[in-house]
Write a structure and sequence with these properties.
single chain; about 400 residues; alpha/beta; seven-stranded mixed beta sheet; 8 helices; globular
Length: about 400
């Protein structure tokens, strides 16, 4: 299958994948049925895990400034001046779950051998938001299979899912270490991730950035789409704070997108010092990407600079499959989740989006706002440190 066809298939599959991830929040019956379909056929065995990536090789990076990859693409209707600060900033992006295979608990990094959504589709929809403000790096990693997020609720006595996520995180942490030591070259940096990538980002911030000299170089972290509990800021992070204004640096941004009126349960889980812990019953942290604050006032659609629409019939090579929809939706932080208008009849509807979740479109619905805000925060960091 050609790269173009794989990406088209993957983008179409994102609706299914994002909807499947949305099941994690609720819908017990479908959780059970879908879980049976994607459950690996064996218990986790580290000896059976795929070979680890070698991050000294550019082939171990899905996105790299020297590779000319899908993170470089922009919408055909995007017109903006070249950012003179772009080469002064680095971006470390961690992609979400795209692996639904049953043959192992973790994916191989060879995309041609991995069933599911190709990483290139995620680079187009998400990582591309950061190519205007910095040099984008995205490691390939042995991502945990989607079922890893089902098992803790269906079979809490088992530890397969946790072990798969531990293995995935070990790759992300090694990639970040290489990024800092050999690629970043002292630049300030942005950490970005979605879903499984956001979960890894939250842990990475605690173990590699918070309370270390690297914190001074953290522009911001966009850890989006994984039910982030507020107690991370009291129990886990010391230096890193919630983002409360558009130009704040050294802080974390998060939201989970749902249709207005949705009341999803908080059934994610996170790694705290000492081990894994359920987020059930915990207060969520939400930042509104139209105002970049946690205020609960509804922000009007006029503040939406552009949702990214993927036209599955376009030609990828010319980036003609991408376009922007300005003023696409309003947004409101409500009880820790981000409410938006009903997307029925729009490209973001998603036939299988359960419980009103627009999880797969957490980035797309606010793509241009993310792009603009990343540049604002990067500029603020550089201006506040003129000798950096």
């Amino acid at each position: 299958m050609t790269l173009r066809k794989k990406i088209l298939a993957g983008i179409a599959g994102l609706t299914l994948g994002g909807a499947a991830l949305a099941i994690v929040f609720r819908a017990a019956l479908l959780l059970f049925v879908f879980g049976l379909i994607i459950r690996p056929r064996m218990d986790f065995d580290p000896a059976a895990a795929p070979a680890p990536p070698d991050y000294t090789q550019i082939s171990a990076w899905a996105a790299h400034p020297d590779s000319g990859d899908a993170s470089d693409w922009t919408p055909k209707d995007l017109v903006e001046p070249e950012n003179p600060l772009k080469d002064k900033v680095a971006v470390f992006y961690i992609h979400p779950t795209g692996f639904f295979g049953r043959g192992n608990w973790n994916a191989r990094i060879d995309a041609r051998s991995t069933p599911g959504i190709p990483v290139e589709a995620m680079l187009v929809s998400q990582a591309s938001a950061f190519n205007g403000c910095g040099r984008v790096y995205a490691p390939k990693y042995r991502q945990a299979t989607l079922y890893s997020f089902f098992e803790p609720s269906r079979a809490p006595e088992k530890k397969n899912g946790y072990q798969a996520l531990e293995l995935a995180y070990s790759d992300v942490a090694r990639a970040f270490d290489h990024f800092i030591e050999h690629e970043c070259q002292g630049r300030p940096f942005i950490v970005a991730g979605h879903s499984q990538g956001a979960q890894h980002a939250m842990r990475l911030i605690a173990e590699r950035i918070d309370q270390t000299p690297l914190y001074e170089r953290l522009i911001a972290a966009y850890a989006i789409g994984y039910s982030m509990p507020e107690d991370l800021f009291t129990r886990v992070y010391t230096n890193v704070k919630p983002c409360t204004s558009p130009a704040q640096t050294g802080c974390v941004i998060h939201w989970d997108t749902f249709k207005e009126g949705s009341t999803p349960e908080n059934l994610g889980f996170h790694y705290y010092p000492g081990g894994w812990e359920s987020a059930a019953g915990k207060k969520r942290y939400c930042v509104n990407p139209l105002t970049w604050t946690s205020e609960t006032t509804r922000a009007p659609a006029s503040l939406n600079s552009g949702a990214l629409i993927v036209n599955a019939e376009g030609e990828i090579g010319a980036a003609s499959m991408l376009k922007l929809s300005a003023e696409h939706t309003w947004a409101e932080c409500h009880d820790g989740v981000l409410w938006v208008k009903d997307q029925a009849g729009t490209p973001f509807a998603g036939r299988l989006a359960l419980e009103g979740s627009y999880h797969v479109h957490d980035y797309n619905l606010f793509w241009m706002n993310i792009r603009q805000n990343a540049a604002v925060r990067a500029k603020a960091w550089l201006e506040n440190r003129p000798g950096a």
